[in-house]
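Methods, example record. To illustrate the input and output format used throughout this study, we show the complete record for Flagellar biosynthetic protein FlhB. The sequence lines were provided to the predictor; the line carrying structure tokens was produced by it.
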Amino acid sequence: MTDIGARKQHQQHQQQRAVALAYQDGDGAPKVVAKGKGLLAERIIERAQEAGVFVHESRELVALLMEVDLDRQIPPALYRVIAELLAWLYHIESSQVSTQVSGAPAPSAPGAANLLESS
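The corresponding predicted structure is encoded as:
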């Protein structure tokens, strides 16, 4: 790898950010349970994938969620965005069974820009 390639790869690692949310019955709203940049973000994503947790890519949504403190619930302004994303995920999970049976493709993810614009 060239020096320029190594620098680009390093910059990509530094720019990558990730936020993990969790929701338990009885919670008022999902909580931010992990967040980080660079290598920490990569590790958060790897752990999610290893656990079979869906990873949704949205720079806009991650930027907003990075502002939420750890172990804090998401702010009311993000309820609709997160609810739409969770509804889509539920739909995907429930359609996986019918996809395996019928062979139909799963629906595509809602765009973060669309979700953010609709709130």
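Annotations derived from this record:
The CA atoms of residues 52 and 111 lie 21 Å apart.
The longest strand covers residues 31-37.
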